[in-house]
């Protein structure tokens, strides 16, 4: 085979790869298979929002499959809360992708992963903002509303300022003795008539607060909180949300996630259940009227 034919085959191969990865006008929600952790990619055309990054670099494999090979930009990264199983993979993401904006809570988790991620955010001058209940966002034609947290912190945002040399100062005003799960960011999304809820690691107490505020709606898709922990996904909450599909992001673990209790409650409300430890990466697609798994 001469060099001309070889070059032609290479060009055709690249063209076919490019065509196969062209974005359509549908919503794609990918729950990445990152083991015991969370990483959810929401895509519409060439717009992407990544909520959490999992416990390691596994998220990069997911992004490589779901984003065009030429697309190295993520419009929005959301860190639901700064725990390793949601945060660590974002270090690799920031090192390899251009992140336009980042949504973070005003809290510190005094771990090396936290300080490394914070340092990258500052060094790369990523625009950061703190969410608050009722805040509205758009990703192309996908609409989001922040359901939790209910209020912002009183002090300067923990992720702004200098590098790690100001660690003690930041710890002094931004650290918390409470469970960081309590400030997990909760996002409700809408694309046409398709609704979905991304819950981080909130527990039953936060679920009850959301119901008391009358801001919980029925959804087609629910990302199960805290990997199916018995402390989340209460019966009243699931009956209020009444998901058609529930996705559990989970890997091999010693916590018993997802619990039989949660799985039983999901069956009672008629939800189809998919687990990343069984199904691998889960992709849900919607045209704004219908939805299906891919």
Give the averaged pLDDT, no decimals. Answer: 90
List the strand order in the largest sheet: 6-5-4-3-2-1-14-15
Name the CATH homologous superfamily.
Ribonuclease Z/Hydroxyacylglutathione hydrolase-like
What is the percent of helical residues?
Answer: 25-40%
CATH architecture: 4-Layer Sandwich
How many structurally independent domains? 1
Given this structure, which CATH class is correct?
Alpha Beta
Give me the strand/helix succession. HEEEHEHHEHEEEHEEHEHEHEHEE
Please report the distance between the alpha carbons of the first and last residues: 38 Å
Q: Which percent range describes the beta-strand content?
A: 15-25%
Q: Given the C-alpha coordinates, what overall shape results?
A: globular
CATH topology label = Metallo-beta-lactamase, Chain A
Radius of gyration: 20 Å
The strand count comes to: 15
Query: Which class best fits the helix and strand makeup?
Result: alpha/beta
Uncertain segments are 14-20
Number of helices: 10
Largest sheet: 8 strands, mixed
Overview of the molecule:
The structure is a single chain. By secondary structure, the chain is α/β, with parallel strands linked by helices. The chain contains ten helices and 15 strands. The strands form two sheets. An eight-stranded mixed β-sheet has the order 6-5-4-3-2-1-14-15, with helices on one face. A seven-stranded mixed β-sheet has the order 7-8-9-10-11-12-13. Helix 8 (235-241) links the parallel strand 11 and strand 12. The longest helix has 18 residues, at 3-20.
């Amino acid at each position: 085979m001469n060099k001309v034919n070889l070059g032609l085959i290479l060009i055709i191969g690249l063209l076919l790869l490019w065509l196969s990865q062209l974005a359509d006008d549908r919503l794609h929600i990918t729950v990445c298979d990152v083991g015991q952790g969370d990483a959810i990619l929401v895509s519409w055309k060439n717009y992407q929002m990544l909520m959490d990054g999992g416990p390691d670099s596994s998220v990069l494999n997911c992004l490589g499959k779901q984003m065009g090979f030429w697309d190295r930009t993520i419009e929005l990264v959301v860190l639901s809360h700064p725990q390793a199983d949601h945060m660590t993979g974002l270090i690799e993401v920031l090192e390899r992708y251009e992140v336009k904006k980042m949504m973070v809570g005003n809290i510190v988790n005094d771990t090396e992963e936290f300080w490394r991620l914070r340092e990258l955010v500052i060094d790369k001058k990523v625009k950061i903002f703190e969410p608050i209940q009722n805040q509205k966002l758009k990703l192309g034609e996908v609409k989001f509303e922040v359901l939790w947290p209910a209020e912002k912190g009183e002090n300067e945002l923990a992720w702004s300022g200098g590098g790690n040399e100001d660690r003690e100062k930041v710890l002094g005003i931004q650290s918390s003795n409470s469970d960081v799960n309590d400030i997990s960011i909760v996002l409700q999304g809408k694309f046409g008539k398709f609704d979905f809820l991304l819950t981080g690691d909130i527990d039953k107490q936060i679920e009850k607060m959301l119901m008391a505020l009358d801001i919980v709606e029925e959804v087609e898709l629910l990302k199960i909180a805290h990997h199916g922990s018995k402390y989340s996904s209460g019966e009243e909450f699931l009956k209020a949300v009444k998901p058609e599909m529930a996705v559990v992001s989970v890997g091999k673990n010693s916590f018993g996630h997802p619990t039989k209790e949660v799985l039983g409650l999901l069956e009672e409300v008629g939800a189809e259940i998919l687990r990343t430890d069984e199904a691998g990466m889960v992709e849900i697609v919607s045209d704004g009227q219908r939805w299906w798994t891919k």
